[in-house]
Structures are given as C-alpha cells and as structure tokens.
Amino acid sequence: MDIKLSAAGRRFNQEWIFRDISYTFAGGQKYAILGPNGSGKSTLLSLILGNLSPSEGEVSYSADGIAIPEAEWYRQSSFAAPYLDLVEEFTLQETIAFHFKFKDLIPGLNLRAVLDLLGLSRSEDKALKYFSSGMKQRTKLALACCTDAPLLLLDEPTSNLDVQGVSWYQDLIAQFAAKKMVIIGSNQENEYKFCDHHLQISDYK
Ligand SMILES: Nc1ncnc2c1ncn2[C@@H]1O[C@H](COP(=O)(O)OP(=O)(O)OP(=O)(O)O)[C@@H](O)[C@H]1O
Asked: Pfam families recorded for this chain (predicted)?
C-alpha cells in the first residue's frame, strides 16, 4: 500500500500549519515526522490517517496502483497517541477484547498473548482508570502494534514511558513492525532511530 500527499496543506483559521507537502509513503518503509512542539506533526498524522481533511491539496491511498476509497482507510491502519482516549471503565482484558472486535490480530497471536506481551497480567482485571499514564501508553502501543494492518502510525510513542518502557517499545517494534509501513511523529531520537526516512515539518512552512 502507498499513501500519497499531493501539494497538501492544512490551516486552522487563518494560520497555515504546513503547505505544499508532496510526498509518497511506500509500503513497508519506516518514516519519522520531525519538528519541535507545536510544529504540526500530530496535524500531519491526522491528515495521513484521514481524521482531518487537507485545507488544500490531496491525500490518497492506493494498493497495486488502485485507489482505496476513503471509507476503507481506517481498515489499513492502527494508531497510538498519548491524546487518544481509552474507555476508562473497561478492565485491561475488556480493553484488549474490545479493540480486537473491530481490528484483526496479527496471525499467530491471540488475546492472551497480547496480555502477556504487555507484562501487566497482574492488572488484567483492573479498570484502566486506575492505570498509571505509562501503563496506559503501553496498552495503546501493544494494541496498535498487534493489529494486522499495513500501516502503523505512532505519535510520541515513548511519552510517559520509563527506561524499561522505552526498551520494551523498541522490542515491540522489532517484533511486530518489520513488514509494516511505520510513521512516527516524534522529536526524540530513541523513538525513531529505526526509521530510514525523515520528514521535517519546518521544510513545509
Ligand atoms: N483543532 C485545532 N484548532 C486550532 N489550532 C489547532 C488545532 N489543532 C492544532 N492546532 C494548532 O496547530 C499547530 C500544530 O499543532 P500539532 O499538535 O500538530 O503540533 P505537534 O508538532 O504535534 O506538537 P507537539 O510536539 O507539542 O505534540 C499548533 O499551533 C496548534 O495550536
């Protein structure tokens, strides 16, 4: 699958966040979207996901040269971000089961394996509202990485993670992201050092 941005730009009110991005994200490749706080990384990720429309230009998805309709884009991707809300009343077990009612698991995995991978099995019956911010972030990353989709999109993946959490994240990527297109919004090198392609938002101001 490829994702193509053609002269894409986005503004909020009168302020342009970025303009004239023409770029193709190719299947299986690893990309980092880089820039300081407030530069527009999350906004660009939302455009790529189809959660926000461009104010000018176009975003398109295709597979083997055939366009994928926008209504189908969400099936192609899995996404994790610190600002993405989980259902606080659900236990960890319920959260995992709920997510995989809507998304497919990577073949060979099951719900128990996702729980084991998280290293939080003692908290499987605990409601997420009692989870620390780092435990919630691990949960979001595991759900996204274990989803069988060609695109993995992560915004600030190691926010709220401690040193062990960062190393756990790096193992997760090595284990589950090898064949996927991965796009990371980041300003911390330990989150994106496996990415071969870097896109600087400041080049599109
Ligand atoms: N819904 C919105 N309405 C108005 N302005 C917005 C909206 N969403 C984002 N912005 C503005 O767009 C700019 C880019 O924000 P964005 O969150 O994309 O940056 P970022 O690079 O992801 O930042 P950070 O590294 O802090 O997460 C900021 O100036 C922000 O205030």
From this structure: ABC_tran
